[in-house]
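seq:
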Amino acid sequence: MRPTSSSASDSRAAGTRVVAIGVIAIIVILGAAAVFLFLNLPDANAFNARVERLFVENDDLTSGAEIKLLEILAQSGTAFSETLMSYRVVIFVLMVFATALLVASLVFVVTIMILNRRMGEIERHGIQVSSLLISREDNAVYLNNMEFKLTGAMVETLAVLAEARMDDDVLSGAELEAIISGRNAGDCDEAAGATRIKRLRDALGNQMVSELLIKTIARRGYVLAIEKDVIKMV
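struct:
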């Protein structure tokens, strides 16, 4: 189980590095794009400057219609300047929004990759169990501090598997049924033990977790896929 823990830690560390590098890359790329875009936008006061130049260079425009035209041009320049400033704000907000979306997407992708890798490790090596406490008196099992209420028969089944695990034994269905019922293994049916295992797995809930906790070894039997030193029975 130790290699699984080490691999999970390595996966988290690698994922953190990927996220950090990706976030920095996204910020740098979008920041450079924003700077380039803002630098190439026309000056907000360019139109006003041209209108002012018309006023300065054309002192002979003295008629009412000509002055009115220049006033309209000045007002248009002011409107253009305000519109361009609003465009700058909109572009800035969109760039920030795009950065946030890309960072969130990167985090989600890396998280999914790490989870898939960890699920692969679990499938190959089994579940990392730090403690397994079996309480016959309370008909309860505490797996990594998670409590599972079971029937007396299910607790007894798990207890027998735990004792076999501590002795490095693999129990067939008939042997499991024999130990629980107190009969000879030759007089017990393999299906009876398999039924006990199925009921225990169903009671533990998540099918994948229970299948990995109680492993089936072909043509041999059943065994708990955990370290011996984490098992306790009261």
